Amino acid sequence: MACLKVHGSVFSTAVLRVITCLNEKDLEFELVPINMAAKEHKKEPFISLNPFGQVPAFEDGDLKLFESRAITKYIAYEYKEKVTQLISMDSKKMAILAQWLEVEAHQYDPAASKLTFELVIKPLMLGLTSDGAVVEEYEGKLAKVLDVYEARLAESKYLAGDCFSLADLHHLPSINYLMGTQAKKLFESRPHVSAWCTDILARPAWTKTLAMQKKP
Ligand SMILES: N[C@@H](CCC(=O)N[C@@H](CS)C(=O)NCC(=O)O)C(=O)O
């Protein structure tokens, strides 16, 4: 039995972020499924792992964590020697990487998550209708963020520099969902953003993560 455990649903963007990081590191882990429709994430035993009642929760032996970005940072440092290097040991390079981690969390994700909810979760998972006004508002917000990304990616292959890093990885779940919606135009109309999306979505670790959604 693997000592690394991820508790959550493979349809959650935050859970997919953690699983992709584990796959980049080629680490074995156990997925402990949480039935969100049955509100298992709001009850014991899950609530003892994350008192905020949100997936994912993570265990590495005695260490118990929640918040997907904290979990991926832990994995990237703890298993830094394994396979893909997702962080930098150089303080200046790490500062740039950390800057783009913050951009993803505080500039990109609020717009991308709202659009994922309106365009994917509401119509496909909850059987609800998307709110057109909200979609228009958040497409505008995401477009502004992606204008900054387009300029950055014109000078640098990946967000933090020449190599794929945690800063790129954190975007994968929402980009993947949004590419199946009308919001894909925001990514595809910006050539450098489009090339970056194609590149990171083709990573074997991401393919392996997506395959977990197809398992019965
Ligand atoms: N900042 C948290 C967000 C986690 C989060 O929003 N999880 C969602 C699924 S993607 C969830 O559990 N939603 C159910 C709820 O909030 O009740 C993280 O990155 O782990």
UniProtKB/TrEMBL annotation:
Catalytic activity: RX + glutathione = an S-substituted glutathione + a halide anion + H(+)
Any one GO cellular component localisation term in the record: cytoplasm
EC number: 2.5.1.18
Domain (GST C-terminal): residue spans on this chain: 90-216
Alphabetical list of Gene3D superfamilies matching this protein: 1.20.1050.10, Glutaredoxin
Domain of life: Eukaryota
Occurrences of domain GST N-terminal (ranges): 2-83
Coiled-coil annotated residue ranges, if any: none
Enzyme class: transferase
Keyword field contains Transferase: yes
Family note: Belongs to the GST superfamily. Phi family.
PANTHER family on file: GLUTATHIONE S-TRANSFERASE F6-RELATED, GLUTATHIONE S-TRANSFERASE RHO
UniProt protein name: glutathione transferase
Record organism: Tetracentron sinense (Spur-leaf)
Upper taxonomic lineage: Eukaryota, Viridiplantae, Streptophyta, Embryophyta, Tracheophyta
